[in-house]
């Protein structure tokens, strides 16, 4: 951990939607794979402390107003979100921002993959 | 405190004690003729929307306790001059007249056109007999919203009438609720015409408010009036009416103010857990709802000052509109606002007139 990297495990062991939990200092951090990318987030939901990184990963369901009298059109967008299994608070994996209120933020960490191994980069 | 008698006071909710018999003369056929030959006469007026048998838990006038000196309500149809008399009594300069009888429309289950006929007749009757912008007497046009075409006809009719400054939706009994896309064309037209939408709670179906068996009006009026507005606030906000029609001004009338912080807090709590179910919203529903305007009456002045202050703070004193509800049993005079210790004089002027000037273009 001298270079600020905390080892998570071989990248090949992750499928999209998989997660692993590691300790970073005193914090629990979840590393999640979505769309081939890795994201690391604090595994402590800002709502009530639930294990947010153990939740379902999926694309965000969006709605669009297409015209007066029309049903709101619903579709899955590009953005991947993770939802806390306790009550469903959901966050963009790219930013850690709550999808319903951008003032609510889940702390994010940098992830690096070196020689096929996934690390959380604490920046220290 | 300000001297209310010297200030301009706008009352956003005055109930004109209309008469089915008088309005019937302005209704389209066949209802004009049918009404004339019916036995209904002015029954709706004299029974003030309730009767001993079988439609309401309690007598609005509380069995002789409540009387009105400056209105014919509840015994006879109003005479137009008496509106001015009542306004003088309350020191009100401008009033927005809302039909008294339309408040019961939610109880009409018949698949006929009586509500459409009444609203069309009412709009003509009021223009002809009562409304007088030069004298500060304006009106809100009732929407027979279950019939979208008939509602659009009324909006076409009042488009160039200075006397009508808004469209009124009675919140009791709306099915589907008023956020439904079914009503989109009405909202779109109101936005085009720059006419605010005024949602007004109502008492129809109070006896069976959610469940039958309540005994007294204190129960049904407390709960039913609140529920009718709450159900529509939730529907209108969650279905994204403010996102669909961002220039539409939305007003809710006649449930006081203390329910709003509770409702929006609960709704926000739900939204953070399931925002995809209100997909048109960009942020918490409370952010939209506190952009709505709210009539203040019946203001809960017996509540603790800190609570009222918190309510005003959450809603915004720039969003509150003084409303008397005269001549109904629980009316508020302007002093209800003027006497509040937590307001400064600018807030008092805003609530008593300034905010309404902006919303209704008065
Ligand atoms: S603790 Fe995460 S949603 Fe409640």
Could you characterize the architecture of this molecule?
- The complex is a heterodimer of chains A (124) and B (362).
- Chain A has 124 residues and is an all-beta fold.
- Chain A has no helices and nine strands.
- Chain A has a single domain, classed as Rieske Iron-sulfur Protein.
- In chain A, strand 8 and strand 9 form a beta hairpin.
- Chain A is elongated.
- Chain B has 362 residues and is α/β, with parallel strands linked by helices.
- Chain B has one domain: Alpha-Beta Barrel (TIM Barrel).
- Chain B is 39% helix and 11% strand.
- Chain B has an eight-stranded parallel beta sheet with strand order 1-2-3-4-5-6-7-8.
- In chain B, helix 7 links the parallel strand 4 and strand 5.
- In chain B, helix 5 packs parallel to helix 6 and helix 6 runs parallel beside helix 7.
- The longest helix of chain B has 22 residues.
- The mean pLDDT of chain B is 94.
- Classes of the chains: A mainly beta (124), B alpha/beta (362).
- Chains A and B meet through strand 5 of A and helix 7 and helix 10 of B.
- The site of FE2/S2 (inorganic) cluster has 11 residues of chain A, from loops.
What is the strand arrangement across the widest sheet of chain B?
1-2-3-4-5-6-7-8
Outline type of chain B? globular
**What helical percentage do the residues of chain B reach?**
25-40%
- State the shape of chain A: elongated
Oligomer: heterodimer
CATH architecture of chain A: 3-layer Sandwich
The CATH superfamily of chain A turns out to be: Rieske [2Fe-2S] iron-sulphur domain
CATH architecture of chain B, please? Answer: Alpha-Beta Barrel
Number of domains of chain A: 1
Ligands bound here? FE2/S2 (inorganic) cluster
User: How many DSSP H or I helices of chain B?
Assistant: 14
Question: In which order are the strands of the major sheet of chain A placed?
Answer: 1-9-8-4-3-2
The CATH class designation of chain A is Mainly Beta
Count of all domains of chain B = 1
């Amino acid at each position: 951990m001298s270079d600020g990297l905390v080892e998570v495990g071989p990248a090949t062991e992750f499928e999209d939607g998989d997660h692993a939990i590691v300790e970073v200092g005193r914090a629990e951090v979840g590393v999640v794979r979505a769309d081939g990318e890795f994201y690391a987030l604090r595994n402590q939901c800002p709502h009530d402390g639930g294990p947010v990184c153990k939740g379902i990963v999926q694309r965000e369901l969006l709605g669009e107003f297409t015209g007066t009298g029309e049903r709101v059109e619903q579709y899955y967008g590009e953005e991947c979100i993770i939802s806390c299994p306790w009550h469903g608070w959901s966050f963009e994996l790219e930013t850690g921002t709550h999808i319903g209120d951008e003032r609510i933020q889940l702390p994010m960490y940098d992830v690096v993959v070196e020689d096929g191994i996934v690390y959380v980069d604490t920046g220290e | 405190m300000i001297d209310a008698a010297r200030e301009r006071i706008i009352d956003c909710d005055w109930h004109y004690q209309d008469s089915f018999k008088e309005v019937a003369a302005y209704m389209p056929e066949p209802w004009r003729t049918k009404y004339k030959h019916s036995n209904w006469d002015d029954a709706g007026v004299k029974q003030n929307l309730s009767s001993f048998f079988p439609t309401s838990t309690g007598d609005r006038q509380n069995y002789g306790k409540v009387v009105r000196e400056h209105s014919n309500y509840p015994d006879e149809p109003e005479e137009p001059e008496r509106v001015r008399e009542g306004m003088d009594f309350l020191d009100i300069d401008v009033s927005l007249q809302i039909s008294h009888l339309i408040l019961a429309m939610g109880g009409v289950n018949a698949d006929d056109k009586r509500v459409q006929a009444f609203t069309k007749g009412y709009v003509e009757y009021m223009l002809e007999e009562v409304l007088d912008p030069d004298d500060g007497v304006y009106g809100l046009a009732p929407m027979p919203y279950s019939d979208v075409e008939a509602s659009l006809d009324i909006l076409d009719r009042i488009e160039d009438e200075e006397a009508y400054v808004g469209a009124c939706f009675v919140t009791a009994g709306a099915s589907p609720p008023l956020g439904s896309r079914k009503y989109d064309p009405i909202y779109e037209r109101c936005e085009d015409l720059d006419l605010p939408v005024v949602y007004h709670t109502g008492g129809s179906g109070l006896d069976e408010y959610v469940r039958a068996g309540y005994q007294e009006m204190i129960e049904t009026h407390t709960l039913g009036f609140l529920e009718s507005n709450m159900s529509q606030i939730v529907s209108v906000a969650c279905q994204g009416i403010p996102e669909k029609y961002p220039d539409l001004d939305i007003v809710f009338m006649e449930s006081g103010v203390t329910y709003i912080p509770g409702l929006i807090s609960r709704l926000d709590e739900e939204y953070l857990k399931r925002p995809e179910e209100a997909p048109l919203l960009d942020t918490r529903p409370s952010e939209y709802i506190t952009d709505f305007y709210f009539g203040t009456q019946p203001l809960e002045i017996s509540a603790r000052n800190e609570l009222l202050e918190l309510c005003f703070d959450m809603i915004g004193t720039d969003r509150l509109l003084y409303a008397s509800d005269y001549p109904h049993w629980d009316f508020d005079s302007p002093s209800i606002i003027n006497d509040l210790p937590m307001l400064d004089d600018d807030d008092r002027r805003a609530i008593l007139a300034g905010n309404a000037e902006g919303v209704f273009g008065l």
